[in-house]
Amino acid sequence: MELRQIEAFLAVAEELHFGRAAERLRMAQSPLSQTIRKLEKNLGAPLFQRNTRSVTLTSAGHSLLPHARKILDEVDLAQRAVQSEGGTVYGKLAIGFSGALNHTTLPPLTRALRQRHPQLAVTLHGGLLTQEALQQLVSGSLDLAFIGLPIDAPSLATRRIATERLGATVPSDHRLAGRESVGVAELAADAFITMPAAQGSTLREVTIAACSAAGFRPRISQEVADPYTALSLVAGGVGISLMPESIAGIMPVGTVFLPLSDEDVLLYSGLAWNPGAMTPALRTALELADDVLPTPGPDRPA
After folding, report:
1. I need a surface site. Which of 85, 127, 144, 165 has the fewest CB within 10 A?
2. Do residues 14 and 46 both lie within one domain?
């Protein structure tokens, strides 16, 4: 395959129209068609289905598309790296996070990346719970993710960045709302709002385990993927929810955060990445994380 063939394929694949693709490439339509036919001959498979009305990708075309984009991205990065000053880091970095649960840890890292390495293209993908994020790290859709710990993913590496005690978030008119703290056992009669089981939430697992240790199985009234949505439902009287102590500063109107008197109910959170997919951009992010994110003390479990 030649670079010009990849560029031609990508233009047609994105435009799905040979005329528009030719205009985009500033070439005549006939040479473009010849370039595509040569590429198809080299690959031994048709990449497009053509008729007088439409152009669509074949299964082979769909398979080639992400690789074609990656090839052109790498060429662009190589050109900019050669032309850049020493020490400048180029590349793309996709970071996954859950949302409100990361409001104290995500901003310091992204702010540092933008300030110190403005040439890095950082994209953020929110609303991801732990298992979803791990799957995307393995597939390569994400480079780095904020996740709950521990995890069962031997191919991935992790670093713990926070250990938080949990508290109960309750409506402001809840029978316990005036208390300074509350025990998990006192919540046995309440309906719980949790993250979905299917999406593999560490917070949900900690909640279920804490209730079990207190002698009951929680009655779950609603499952939502976004932690702040869960807090909004708490405010609406739908149920209560266990949340980490960092949430106390962003509680919506109509809710109260009550620290748990059960000191062993803890949520561990950290960063995860795929060591087998290390890039200069990811290495830079991990080095910055060591600099700007907290390191748990030696008295806390690893």
Report:
1. 85
2. yes
User: Can you tell me whether residue 104 is helix, strand or coil?
Assistant: coil
Q: Which residue bears the tokens 């031609």?
A: 8
Q: Is the dihedral of CA 280, 281, 286, 287 positive or negative?
A: positive
**What pLDDT does 287 receive?**
93
Residue 98 lies in a domain: yes
Smallest CA-to-CA distance from 203 within 275, 59, 99 is with 99
pTM of the model: 0.69
Q: For residue 26, what is the DSSP state?
A: T
Q: Which amino acid is at 46?
A: P
pLDDT score for 193 = 97
pLDDT of residue 75: 77
Question: Residues 151, 285: one domain?
Answer: yes
**Angle, CA of 35, 39 and 40, to the nearest 5°:** 115
Domain presence at residue 302: no
Q: Can you name the residues that pair with 147 across neighbouring β-strands?
A: 270
pLDDT for position 298: 42
The C-alpha angle 80, 85, 89, rounded to 5 degrees, equals 60
Q: How many domains does the chain have?
A: 3
The C-alpha atoms of residue 204 and residue 166 are separated, in whole angstroms, by: 12
234 and 256 assigned to the same domain? yes
Is 269:263 a contact under the CB 8 Å cutoff? no
pLDDT at 299: 41
Structural domain boundaries, residue 30: 3-83
| pLDDT score recorded for residue 302 | 39
Helix, strand and coil content of the chain, in percent to the nearest 5, comes to 45, 25, 35
- Angle (CA) 105-106-108 rounded to 5° is 75
Q: What is the pLDDT of residue 200?
A: 78
Of the residues 30, 58, 83, which one is the last residue of a structural domain? 83
Domain co-membership, 22 together with 148: no
CATH of the domain at 48: 1.10.10.10
Q: Under 8 Å CB-to-CB from 182, ≥6 apart: which residues?
A: 168, 176, 258, 259, 260, 261
